[in-house]
Design brief:
By secondary structure, the protein is α/β, with parallel strands linked by helices. 22% of the residues lie in helices and 26% in strands.
């Protein structure tokens, strides 16, 4: 027998984070499943350290890190965090301009950030300040391209590969 889906935990979780980390400026929105905490790059470490260390929050797992080219010279990095203690989760979003694409590394808080940050750096060009091993995972070290940027010269070809004409909602 399957368990019923848990009720969404937002905005309760964002209020709880604000209660215990009121000195860290952030805004909160929602995704389809989670609270989405938006924080400036300069406040990311304070926010995530507090979310990890405060017993009332106890976000002890970094599930993933995703780098996204938002267009118009803007990058976003999305972190999905989970608390085994409290069974709550949250997404943390940092948005930066391409010219200011330096974000502090979370490897000092979560060991799992190592590979996730390396992949995001390689694929979209985010620079994770303080990362202990910023080597490429997938591409040769001498390549200076970021394949998931919208400006990548092969993006059109790669998107069209495997796409059949007439797919509803897909326009290119």
């Amino acid at each position: 027998m399957t368990q019923p889906a848990a009720a969404p935990q937002y905005p309760g979780i964002s209020a709880l984070i604000h209660k215990h980390l009121s000195n860290v400026p952030f805004t909160a929105t929602t995704t389809g499943t989670d609270a989405d905490i938006h924080v400036a790059a300069e406040h990311l470490l304070a926010l995530v350290e507090g979310m990890n260390q405060k017993p009332e929050l106890a976000f002890d797992m970094l599930a993933n890190v995703t780098g996204i080219d938002m267009g118009e010279d803007t990058l976003a990095v999305k972190y999905n965090l989970y608390s085994f203690t409290h069974n709550h989760r949250v997404q943390v979003t940092v948005t930066v301009a391409w010219a200011d694409r330096v974000i502090p590394s979370l490897t000092g808080i979560y060991r799992a950030a190592d590979w996730h940050e390396r992949e995001a750096a390689e694929m979209v060009g985010v620079v994770f300040a303080g990362h202990p091993n910023p080597k490429n995972l997938l591409l040769d070290e001498d390549l200076r391209i970021h394949p998931l940027l919208k400006s990548h010269p092969l993006q059109t070809v790669e998107i069209l590969q495997g796409i059949e004409e007439g797919v509803p909602g897909f326009k290119f």
